[in-house]
Amino acid sequence: MTVDLDSILQKNLDCFVSANTLRFFGIFYLDSKFTELDPGLWLSDGNCNVTEKCIGSINYCINDTAKHGVVLIEEYNQLHTQDETQKQFLLQIVGDHWRSCADFATTLPQTI
Q1: Domain of life, per the record (predicted)?
Q2: Sign of CA dihedral 71, 75, 81, 83
Q3: pTM for the complete prediction?
């Protein structure tokens, strides 16, 4: 997949905002009232600044977790087996387990 940077820079902010944006804010309990303001005023709005910092933290956590995951799987691969078929089978089992845990987590009550 390639992205044309020039075409992105020519787009307005409303091209990147949808109903899913507000849903995203809701999932993370972020205040979205600033979206009702003119985008030119967002930087002076305290709620926008807090939301921006929270989203930046989420991005950092995702990247950090991904990096740790890569290192972990590389170390794990070296410890158990050198047979590629067995590695793939093991990764399939781990992946299935993670998906079953994710399904379970979505059924838990959201009380935070």
Answers
A1: Eukaryota
A2: positive
A3: 0.42
Give residue-wise pLDDT tens across range 15-47. 777 778 888 888 888 888 888 888 788 888 887
Q: Tell me the pLDDT of the chain averaged across its residues.
A: 77
Contacts of 28 by beta carbon, 8 Å cutoff, 6+ apart: 54, 55, 58
Reading the block at residue 104, the tokens are 């379970």
Per-position DSSP letters for the chain, written without gaps between them: ----HHHHHTS-GGGG--HHHHHHHHHTT---GGGGS-GGGGGG-HHHHHHHHHHHHHHHHHHHHHHHHHHHHHHHHHHH---HHHHHHHHHHHHHHHHHHHHHHHHS----
